[in-house]
Amino acid sequence: MNEKHIIKIAIELSINPHQVMAVATLLEEGGTVPFISRYRKEATGSLDEVAITAIRDRLDQLKELDARREAILKSLEERNLLTDELKTAIDAAETMSVLEDIYLPFRPKRRTRATIAKEKGLEPLADLLFAQESIDPHAEAQAYINAEKGVESVEDALAGARDIIAEKINEDSQARAQMRDFFREKAMIISKMVDGKEEEGAKYKDYFDWSEPISQAPSHRILAMMRGENEAMLALHIAPPEDEAILLLNALFVKNDSPAAQQVRLAVIDGYKRLLAPSMETEIRVEAKKRADEEAIRVFAANLRELLLSPPLGQKNVLGIDPGFRTGCKIVCLDRQGKLLYNDVIYATAASDHQVLEAAAKIKVLCEQFHIEAIAIGNGTASRETDAFIKKIGLPPSIAVVTVNESGASIYSASEVARAEFPDHDLTVRGAVSIGRRLMDPLAELVKIDPKSIGVGQYQHDVDQSALKRSLDDVVSSCVNSVGVEVNTASAQLLTYVSGLGPQLANNIVHYRNENGPFKSRNDLRKVPRLGPKAFEQAAGFLRIRDGENPLDASAVHPESYPIVDAMASDLACSVTDLMRNPELRKKIDLKKYMTEKVGLPTLNDITQELAKPGRDPRDKFEVFQFAEGIEKMEDVHPGMKLPGIVTNVTAFGAFVDIGVHQDGLVHISQLSDHFVKDPAEVVKVHQKVMVTVMEVDLARKRIGLSMKTNTDKPAAPAANRDTRPSRPQGGPRPADRRNDRPAPAAGGWFSKALAQAKTDTKK
Question: Three-class SS of residue 190?
């Protein structure tokens, strides 16, 4: 373990080095982030998952830097180029860009204009010119004319010498460092339309002639422009003012006004335009893309967390409905464990009176036959019509009717997981089951779907996919372990995300459960093939067994702490069950009495909290939400209306809200609050219930502008800077990439208004 890395990370994160060391050690021993944050608080000083993840990721970055450092040193040593001074510089490099700058002059390269000039014997002339002494360059160049080597004139000799100087300037580490900072500060990203792409690239119209400082360009605009470039619709260029850049280089390399210095000036211009500027542009592109990716991934991860932790209805008998017009509504009946009991098709929308009466009768019979406690209706095509139908047929008021976000349900229904679960049923039945189960437990159902297909991100298919996967896996794992998993009912997909498990062990647990019946205790998990001591240590605390042999098996108390609880109960002359049920007994516990070298107050406090509420669910309590009655399509929506809605997506430029008309409206960031908002996530979260005011409705473009301001008399910014397509049509679930098929417009029409408002708010 590199102590320099430990100290560096501690300084960067403003935490104690021993905390970083503890996390690094636990990670090396195979600890997971959820396990370390929950059950090793004494070792880490109670660092949370965010800090532990940051340490893990930074350690990986520094290891990657060290690996590159070693490769460079090995290359230089093999070619007898390594000097003590060079090794010292390489060892001191703290970033990849600095390391590569040091290595650049020594990197094996293809033949360049400079190497060709050197082959012609012009390097001494270049050195003479670069010294910028009082010489006559033309007179000195006479000595280098050699027709056999291709130097046929004085100008040929001087041009070759300038090529050598230009490459020298390009490879100078100080020049590159200063130019890199200059690009970061002053470079503009300039987007132009590719000739002849007016019609084909219409969705990028806002970027046909666009420029802004790269340092200020938001994530969604960078990704939009880069997507347009990848699709050959836009031409992008990133550069600072050329004259300022050349002045900066002249200050570094031009010493005086001598004739030799004039040659160096020419070399500076050539070196900047031909070598340094393209190199810096590439670096800044990579930096900008990485920054944009990180922001997009951050937004996606935050949205995913909120969605996964949506309040569950709980174990209820549910009737799930996947609405439809022509093909009818697919219905399923599920028991309290989510098991499929019945499926059928009814025609309740766009149907004859006879079909509607038949559908109503069938729903009533099914509700009585299967003791239905709630009805889940997908929010796709015919959702509001189906909702209205259900509410008119006279069901008992005790049956809750809930609209469920079905994004990604079609992905699940066509997946291997769904086929394995329901081999005898088609896609439509699987989709309806998914809708019903999402109401019962969103987390347990959504983990079966690739997070990218859930549709709560921005440009998720344009960002670094490995970084996205790691971030989303972290979020899913964090949510699953935070809630805990009932081992006797959980799917293999849900178990996969439990700390210390993974796909193979998850499948082994399910197979063992199917062969041997329900687990009676956590200790029985040790009998699962290939589930060794380390995996048991990491997973056991997050797995729950209701009505098990040990009452603590239903809690988040780790089995390693059972002896502590037993000692507490023994000292109070009661049972563990008594301790969990009686708050007066728990008040008598003297925690200091149970402290050891490894167990401190953080763990003991967690234990007492669990004894009070064993297996508590951190998710909010479920509340039934209702859209406004009579508002079922865009034509029903008019400016000035105040409507209830549910946030479906939060982006860097605002929030999309479902108001029940098959089109999500946009609350632009400038309309989220009466006060200036830098990050929409400060105000709203995915799945949050909100009240919005309709500001504008554009039926032709299917766009709805909304506001959450208390004072909505000001000009609205309803649909600007949007990152996805205009107001998501809810005509059924669709892959996530279809949700981002339009780039974020920059300005024009509604967008110019919103942009102007956003700029005004920013200045405030």
Answer: strand
Distance (Å) of CA 250 to CA 169, 247, 263, 673: 10, 5, 12, 49
DSSP structure class, residue 729: B
Q: Which residues lie below 8 Å from residue 256, measured CB to CB, with a gap of 6+?
A: 132
Residue matched to tokens 């090396």 = 28
* Angle of CA points 751, 753, 755, to nearest 5°: 65
Angle between helices 353-369 and 383-392 (to 10 degrees): 70
Tokens of 374: 């709630």
Q: Which amino acid is at 384?
A: R
Residue 670: which residues within 8 A CB-CB, separation 6 or more? 677, 717, 754, 757, 758, 760, 761
Residue 26: which residues within 8 A CB-CB, separation 6 or more? Answer: 36, 40, 43, 44
Q: CA dist 375 to 18, 315, 346, 439, 742, Å?
A: 53, 13, 15, 9, 34
Alpha carbon distance 80, 90 (integer Å): 15
How open is the CA angle 14-19-22, to the nearest 5 degrees?
A: 150
Angle, nearest 10°, between helix axes 96-103 and 84-92?
160
For residue 764, pLDDT beyond 60 = no
Alpha-carbon span 725 to 203, nearest angstrom: 10
pLDDT of 516 reads 94
Contact call for residues 735 and 453 (beta carbons, < 8 A): yes
* CA nearest neighbour of 655 among 622, 623, 692: 692
Q: Nearest to residue 170, comparing CAs of 284, 275, 266, 282?
A: 275
In degrees rounded to 5, what are phi and psi of residue 677? -120, 125
Residue 323 has pLDDT above 70, yes or no: yes
Sorted by sequence, the CB contacts under 8 Å of residue 445 that are 6+ apart come out as 412, 434, 437, 438
pLDDT higher than 60, residue 665 = yes
Predicted local confidence at residue 153, as pLDDT: 95
pLDDT tens readout for residues 287-297: 999 999 999 99
- Rounded to an integer, what is the distance from CA 559 to the centroid of its chain? 34
From 496, 453, 447, select the one nearest 310 (Cα to Cα): 447
Report the b/e string of 46-63 with b at 16+ CB within 10 A: ebebebbbbbbebbeebe
Paired strand residues for 485: 543
Q: Which amino acid is at 160?
A: G
The predicted model gives 249-260 an average pLDDT of 96
User: What structural domains and CATH numbers belong to the chain?
Assistant: 3-106 (1.10.10.650), 119-300 (1.10.3500.10), 634-763 (2.40.50.140)
pLDDT at position 423: 92
Q: Per-residue confidence at 221, pLDDT binned at 50, 70, 90?
A: very high
Residues 6+ apart with CB under 8 A from 601: 591, 592, 595
Q: Cite the DSSP H helix spans in 447-532.
A: 465-483, 492-496, 503-516
Question: How are the residues of the chain apportioned to helix, strand and coil, as percentages rounded to the nearest 5?
Answer: 55, 10, 35
- Are the C-beta atoms of residues 188 and 216 closer than 8 Å to each other? no
Tokens of 98: 């600095």
Alpha-carbon dihedral angle through residues 696, 702, 708, 713, given to the nearest 10 degrees: 0
User: If you write DSSP's letter for every residue of 239-279 in order, what string do you get?
Assistant: E--HHHHHHHHHHHH--SSSHHHHHHHHHHHHIIIIIIHHH
Cα dihedral value 391, 396, 397, 400, nearest 10: -70
What does the pLDDT read at residue 725? 34
Residue that the structure tokens 């009946």 belong to: 333
Q: Is the pLDDT higher at 570 or at 409? A: 570
**Predicted local confidence at residue 730, as pLDDT:** 34
- Chain centroid to CA 373: 36
State the pairing for strand pair 642-651/543-544. unpaired
Compute the distance between CA of residue 164 and CA of residue 176 in angstroms, rounded to an integer: 17
pTM score: 0.83
Mean pLDDT of all residues belonging to the chain: 89
